[in-house]
Amino acid sequence: MGFLDIFKKRTLDEKMEYYAENGYIGKLEAAAAEGKPKETRIAALSATRLIKQRPGVELLMNALRDPDVDIRRAATKALLMNATKDTTDKLLNYSEQEEDEEVAKLMKEAAISSKDRTPRI
């Protein structure tokens, strides 16, 4: 059984985590794009928490403007692990505009946790 056969048997979350662990940000961006199935988008955003560099943070920050609250929630949860101090102001601003109380709270938590992190390029 080859790699592709094994890869095809992985769950959606496992595939997205593989992309993140191996730095395939383009694959995650494509999977998180509008028009993709919601579960695929959420899995891609969730896996992006493993990418500590700027492209991963940018993907998550862009998802905070998505009209779907579940997408914004997934992005915010991932940002709890890797938001950087240069995203603090945006997170606080977004939290003030967020309609969903849970997501707004998560955004504030991500902003607070990000103050000590320096972005990696």
3D structure, described in words:
- This protein is an all-alpha fold and 121 residues long.
- It has a single domain, classed as Leucine-rich Repeat Variant (Alpha Horseshoe), CATH 1.25.10.
- Helix content is 68%, strand content 0%.
- The model has no long low-confidence stretch (mean pLDDT 88).
Which features characterize this protein?
Leucine-rich Repeat Variant; 68% helix; 121 residues; mainly alpha
Number of separate strands: 0
- How many DSSP H or I helices? 8
Annotated CATH architecture: Alpha Horseshoe
**Main pleated sheet:** none
**How far apart are the termini?**
37 Å
**What value does the Rg take, in angstroms?**
14 Å
Q: Please bin the fraction of helical residues.
A: 55-70%
Specify the overall morphology: globular
CATH topology: Leucine-rich Repeat Variant
- Quick check: average pLDDT? 88
Unreliable sequence segments: none
What is the H-and-E element order? HHHHHHHH
Please, what is the oligomeric state? single chain
